[in-house]
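Subject: complex prediction, re-run

Hi both,

The earlier run crashed halfway through, so I resubmitted it with identical inputs.
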Amino acid sequence: MKQYVIKTAAFSLIFLLLFEFFTICYVPVYFEDSDWPTTGVYQAFYSLKKNTVDAVFLGSSAGNCGFIPQELYNQYGITSYNLSCEQQNLISSYYWLRECLRFQKPKAVVLECKFLFESDREKLTEPWFRKALTYMRWSSVKKEAVETVCDILPDESEISWIIPMIRFHSRWEETNEAESFTHYLSMTDKHHLMGYFPKFTSIGKGAAWNMQQNGDDVRKANPSRLELDYLDKIVALCRNRGMTLILTYTPCEMTKDKHVFLEEYAEAAGIPFIDFNDNVVMEKISYSVSTDNESKWHANVSGARKLTDYIGEYLSSGLAMEAHRDSQWEKTKNAYENVEKDYLLASEKEPETYLTLLSESRDRYIVFLSIYAGDAERMNDRVKQQLTDLGLNLPLKKQWNQRYFAVLTKDGAAENEEEKSGQKLEISGRLAGGSSYRMESGVNSVIYLNDKPYSLQRTGLSIVVYDTYRCTVIDTVSYDPKSSFLLR
Amino acid sequence: MSLFSLLFFCAFVVSIGIYYLIPKKYQWVALLIYSAGFFYLSCNPATAVYLVISVISAALAAKMIHRCKANENDKYARLALITGLVINLGILAALKYTNFLLSNLNSLSGVLKVMPAIPMTEWAAPIGISFYTMQIIAYLLDVYWGITEPQNNVAKAALFIGYWPQLTSGPIARYNDMKEQLYSGHEFSWRNVTFGLQRMLWGLFKKLVLSERLAVMVDMVYSDTAYFNGIYIWAAAVMFMFQLYTDFSGCMDIIIGASECYGIVLPENFRRPFFSRSVQEYWQRWHITLGTWLKDYVLYPLMRTRKWKKLIQKTGKKFRGKAAKQIPSYLGMLVVWLLIGLWHGGDWKYIIGMGLWFFGCIVLSKVLDPWFKKAKDALHINADNGVWHLIQSLRVLLLVAIGNVFFRLDSLEAALHALMQGLILEGHDSYYYSKLWTLGLNESNRNVLLIGLLILLTVSLLQRKGSVRELIARQNIVIRWIIYFILIFSVIILGRYGPGFDAQAFIYQGF
Amino acid sequence: MSRKQIYEKLADVFEDVFDQRIALNDRITARDVEGWDSLTHIILISAVEDEFGVKMDMKSVQRLTNVGAMVDLIEELLAK
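This time it finished cleanly. Structure:
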């Protein structure tokens, strides 16, 4: 009899291990190298010590890239965590707040509430709920959340949330198990920004103007009934626990009606509402949409600093939240410093300064370079010297229409050149962490990372900068020696 | 309660645990409770009243028959028998065939304009009624013929009739084969439980990995027979046979495997049917318990009645030769085949497609047999030749596939139309043929299907020599466990269950 | 009737039903005779009943596994 028990136990153990392996392979995960690092954000949240968070941010992707907990700590000594994620509707926000309260006792909750007005049913779909809620650990809170989702979406089954394999096993068709598993292992603890996800580009004046035009359009604010219910629940929950709820709206295509609705709602509920689209507020923080927004919904690093600063001011003087030291936020200072350097780099227009910044962080970067020999010759000496310091072998040997590829790492450079005109050159390889790169020559040569094209496909010098810490592309520029500025 | 749900599996595992923990003499009570629970969760519980009536009438009738026979009172024995049969057949006929009768009456009265159309009924039938009714009939006749003694305990009789693994789709068992196993209780046997689970796993593989994929291809063709005409029709017909086989026999594997875990052996329903050399042999290997039931409880009793024997004498006088002797048996067969057709459902398509078509195939092959033999001798074909066997199997497959087109499609007209479409064999370009290789599946899925069918073929070939589970059990533990894990994860990962769409729907839109 | 006589008569019946002369012994089963399937089996039974003037009941018919069992049964019925 004993041998049966042992056999059964061993068999079950192996089964569970294999099952876990395949679950990791097939359940979609989102880390720093995705569009939004939702999985990483929530994994890192659970690794915090209990009751160390003073304030928590919730909301959609606008919140994810709009508020920087490290800034809040660095400038005001307030510890916070950003639990926003892409397409997080108010239902998910509510349940994440409940989940947060199982581990933390924040005094303030900052809720970015764009989704209140996402009233079309398109937004209440399975993928968005799954993205927001899959990485919540199983508990009575998650059980309730799953039941709610199953009520809203009739096709959902609870069992497919308890055992995600039931939902995702069909992904075997498009998944390479070895790649998927190693990707998971290598990316799983790479989020050190306390829930913040930086955006580095800016939309420019034209798009900014468009945004403002659309914003003035007086449209009827149509809050979704369901979302409003959950906003009420969030308000009630905060009131019951003695937390201050602050409603916010980050800079975007805001309409008057929405503003009025939220203002009235906030007043009736007795909670503050900070509309960052309000001119007075914008002026106070010197916010300029053309340089501080990355898109019509999202702030970039510069914008996020300003938004965070305003919140910090509000929390510390308005709510009298005290500054204090916490080793967890001390440890992550370095990660944020890197992000600040990355932003500087990504917004630099002057080539020589750019290359200086590049070389300062070259331990962390992998730089992909593509250049015509002729264009290399036309660059000024200072630039040539900087490129040589980075590892590129100048002067380039061949004729003016030869293309050169280089992959510059902290260990040195790997170079290749186009052999003859007309013959296509391609180099490819793998980076630590599993990403693949490929560079193809042609009239406009292309640099691919994970099969996504990153270079600007113009002539001249193309640079793609890859951060090995966050395993993501920081910047892609092109430089034509004839002009004096970098193009993005 | 679906046999393919996680809930079922968890409940089943628990049931095994409880079963072996309680004393052997009460194990049958546990099985009865499980069966009641299964019934309750599988259909409208209100229909239990029919099952209860069937059980009580069968138990009482059997007792009566036995007692009357013991007292040499044949007349009352027969009366008890007829009463039991009428009640049970009556319920079955009323619940399952009333609409068939009504629709035919309506068509007739529509033509004759005698009376207005009678609306169809919507009476719910309890799960397994077709199967347990047949089991009851077999039981009553066996008691009447003295083949077995009746079960005097009504609860035990209820277990025999409503034993849960048999409730969804049989197999149809004989009381003699079941009585020892059901009531005597079983010691825990590691082999029974592990072999039973392995068999269930195999059944899941056939159903979820193979059958569901074949269904995609078959459905695609039949959804548009105007476009998918010609060779597609034949391909779909053949693929449907494999779909039906993997589905039905997979179901049987789960059922028989589950029962095996309790230590109770149910009769087999399939025995490598596609290895048959003739349509007649096919029906001895496909849905075996249905065939033997019809043989023992319809064909033989029928052909031994006095009226039938008079018929034999009459035809013996009218016709000469071997064929003459066969005619009465052909008539007997006709009755059997009409019943097979009708048993599949109350619709003309079943009677014609599943009944008359196969009857025709078998009779024709018997009549043409001497000519076939002459041709074989002339061509010097060795009957044991593997290639010849393959040709015969393909012929059987095609004939059976045609009959089952009627099973698959919704109506007689639809089936005939599809078959006509199948005759459009010209006027197609190469693009038309290009879809034949995937037919609704993408390449990965098609490859999985092909490999799976190869595995199925290999297992079937191995099974001719003996039990494959035994074969595996003789290997060392590493190989055994590798095989089990491959099978388990094939089902979990490759099985087509759960929300049908894949996670490519996770597209970040627009923000 | 002796067992040998039964065998001789039985051989005639077999020839009639199966259109071929078969050398019968106790161990012969349906598998050994071409054309002996479940259909012809029942015709055979009827023919045997007619030829020997006996009536086999369903219980006995189901227990017939080979020719030897059939001959035993005929003997038993004739003795009654």
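Chain C has one domain: 3-79.

- K.
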